[in-house]
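Final report, Chapter 2: Outcomes

The project's central promise was a pipeline that accepts a single protein chain and returns its three-dimensional structure in a standardized token representation, suitable for archiving and comparison. That pipeline is now operational. To close this chapter, we reproduce one record exactly as it appears in the project archive, with the input sequence first and the structure output second.
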Amino acid sequence: MSKRLLLSLLSTSLLGCDSNDDVKELDSVLIKKNEYFSTQFNVDGNQQVNVKVSLLNNIPSEAFIITEAEYKNWEDETQTNDFANATLASLVKFSPIPSSQTESGWMKLDSGDYRILIENTAFGSVRPQGISVSDSTNVMYSILYK
């Protein structure tokens, strides 16, 4: 089965959105041990946002919705890969990300730039163990607007 078809099938079941929802972004990411992934999204004052995440396979991980300013702080604090001592003030925390879909619920955020941060590091309460390839995490996420 092609990746595009699989993603389409997964998105249909994962999103569960109605005709009034606008999908801003939908993707799955593979994150190796001691790495993280982030993507930016923008909110204007008239929109509500719902972020959905699901663990597809491998080890549990955590995801956060944060402001752009908080992401810059995260980058500054973790540039030496000292994730265990990093701090993060999140608007929403998914910990651990479950294998069944979970979501933030519809949120009214101030206008501005935000990020989804998915981490597979020593930060937080979910930490990778061992050194095998399966220490990576595979997470699907979506950002919806209405």
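Archive annotation: The first helix runs from residue 3 to 15.
This record, like all others produced under the grant, will remain available to the consortium after the project formally closes.
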